[in-house]
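Here's what a typical entry looks like (Glutamine synthetase):
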Amino acid sequence: MSTLSELLELSLDEKTIIAEYIWIGGSGTDLRSKARTLPGPVTDVKKLPKWNYDGSSTNQAPGADSEVILYPQAIFKDPFRRGHNILVICDAYTPQGVAIPTNKRAAAAEIFAKKEVAEEVPWFGLEQEYTLLQKDIKWPLGWPQGGYPGPQGPYYCGTGADKAWGRDIVNAHYKACLYAGIQISGINGEVMPGQWEFQVGPAIGISAADQLWAARYILERITEIAGVVLSLDPKPIDGDWNGAGCHTNYSTKTMREEGGYAHIKEAINKLGLRHKEHIAQYGEGNERRLTGRHETADMNTFSWGVANRGASIRVGRDTEKEGKGYFEDRRPASNMDPYVVTSMIANTTILWKPKGSELILF
């Protein structure tokens, strides 16, 4: 009698593969997926068929007209089934070909396709912080039930059984992302115990957002296997504990070239002028995190600084010294939509042209 593990490891005929179609659900943060059989390996996303699902069961369509169409947009190797099997990041449309309201990728793709944006080759590095929770009590992994660990201090990049909880999950996710072809560039333990971070990028344009969603999906699957709950809440625990963000590092071709520091300052100025608009799109519940404490700037005030983790925008010492490079937008929450945030930053810094009288920061 075969075991479940043995059945899961069965090898398939190379002429048959399984494609896991992944999309964002009605909340804008939940991930949904379902699998289909294809007649052979596929490496070109344009050769994948469209598919459909019941949008009334994901809060994305009414029951009387529930069909939503999935458009494949990006392919990754499947670290769970392996072989030639694939994960497919999709976005969602009506049968008439109109992007549904929760499809934020379509609008982002339009921005990144604009000539002025494409010529600037925008790079993004996304720092995804997250918290691992005990499944039955929704309390951080490693924390005593109904109680608290010692104060923050020893946990950031910490080692040891009393400082780092969930490392096997984190390392499994790291390797799975590398296997999938995601440009994951690192991991680390965060300031609050039970909280971790992984980084995606630098990646160009909309690819950074596709990869972050794929990495989030893989993490959801791994925590599912481990019996642990993944939380992207920007402030999972009230009190003297750090929140969770998704700091967004950004540069353009002009910023990376000689004399780029002036263009960095110009971009920061534009972001300052549109601070309220950006904050409104940077994640639900972010007001609980952006308080001016715990390495954040107050959400009602825009600021920037060199090596200042208490500012809205941080410029690195190397960028200042070399006169070119990148900067970090520290405002986005851990639950932000990377399609929204990356395209909004590109739109504001490249396409938006403020009046001369509005250039007030520098």
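The chain has a mean pLDDT of 96.

More examples are in the samples folder.
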